[in-house]
Structure formats: structure tokens, C-alpha cells
Amino acid sequence: MTPPNAAKGIQIDIASDVVCPWCIIGFLQLRRALSRTGLAARLRWHPFELNPDMPPQGQNLREHVAEKYGTTAEDSDRARETLVEMGAELGFTFAFTDDSRIVNTFAAHQLLDWAEGQGRQHDLKLALFAAYFTRGEDVSDPAVLERTAIAAGLDGPAARRALDSGAHAGAVRAKQRVWTERGVHGVPTMVFGQKYMVTGAQEVDGYITLLNRIAEEGL
Question: CA 111 to CA 74: how far, in whole Å?
């Protein structure tokens, strides 16, 4: 896979949230598909908040899922086991605990918007997935976000200034509206070659089929 800002390759736009486990699963499946096809891609991440009204203190993840989706504790355990197994097969670690929390991600999306201008959005996105799912960190905490930005190769103090200024808040809201106005209500949502929209994490073979079709069409 070529770097996200490369001037060649299939354009793939991905709307996602950093607390969405299927977003990292979908990306890793896509990355594997790209590797198997040998096709290049230009990736662009776009903001989407699954829980825009989540309060600053967040909520216990198990309780949140039960309230939002009506799942039982047994359903939640099975879902977590599935994600852990899929993540391990793809080289990613999910480390769920009884204390795992869902948090507000608006600040994280603002930092990602800033990082795009620094040429490090992709690196930061993956670092945020790891911070939240693997290390169980609070990705709504400015200190955590600054530390994650540094881990992604960004300037920590500059990242903190970008967050504190709120300069990217308006841009993030505007970009979110683009997706909701297109009828997108779940993530990951990927648009391939500005033509084919796919919602939800797909199997590797499904991505391969679509990538080959787009390559044949020259998109």
C-alpha cells in the first residue's frame, strides 16, 4: 500500500470513529486485500462520531452497548471474543476489560484534522486505535491525545495547541455533515474511486473483488 498522500493509486475515503472496533478490523482487512492484489491506494480518513452526545466522563462500554443496542452480557462477551480473535489474526490486539469505557471522540477528530495538514493523519489514526483498544487509554483526554500524537511522529506541543485553540472544530463538524447528508449512519463506510460505497467491515475476498473491479475501470 502506498502512503496515504501518494499521488497515485485507488482513492479510498474512509469515514470512521476511533472507538469503533469494526473500523480498525475493516481497515486491516482492506490492507490485506491491497497487499494480495498488489494495488496501490490513496487513503483519506474522515470524521464520524458514533456517540456525539457522549458526556465528558464517558460511560462503561458494556453498559453503553446494552443501552444502545439492547445486548445482553452474554452477547457482549461473544462479540468481544470475536473481535479479539479477528484482531489477533490480523495482527491487532483488543484488550477489553470490565472497566473499558466509551468516550467522546470530538477532540480526537479535531486532532486528526490537524494531523492531515501535517501529513501524518494515517499514522495518528492507527496510533489512536492502538491507544484506545490495546492500551485502554482515554482518547478524549488532551494529555493522552498529545502523547499519542508524539507516538505518531507529530510535534506534541503543536498538537496540544491545535487542540486547545479549537481551530479545527468547525471543519470537523462540516466534514461530518457531508457524510450524514449522504445517509451514512454507521461506520466504517468506505468509498472506492469516488464511486463505490461500502458500509461495514468486509471480508478480505470482498475487498479484493471490488479493488480488482475498480482497477479494471481505471478509477
Answer: 36
Count of residues for the chain?
219
pLDDT of residue 218: 86
pLDDT at 3 over 50: no
Q: What is the mean pLDDT of residues 106-115?
A: 98
Q: b or e along 119-140 (b: 16 or more beta carbons within 10 Å of the residue's beta carbon)?
A: ebbbbbbbbbbbbbbeeebbbb
Angstrom CA distances, 43 to 65, 104, 176, 193, stand at 30, 24, 17, 11
Contacts of 200 (CB under 8 A, 6+ apart): 22, 26, 186, 188
Q: Phi and psi at residue 44, in whole multiples of 5°?
A: -135, 125
Domain spanning 10-217 has what CATH number?
A: 3.40.30.10
Location of C-alpha cell 466534514: 175
Dist CA 33 CA 36 (whole Å): 5
Identify whether the C-beta of residue 21 lies closer than 8 Å to the C-beta of residue 188. no
191-216 confidence digits (pLDDT tens)? 999 999 999 999 999 999 999 999 99
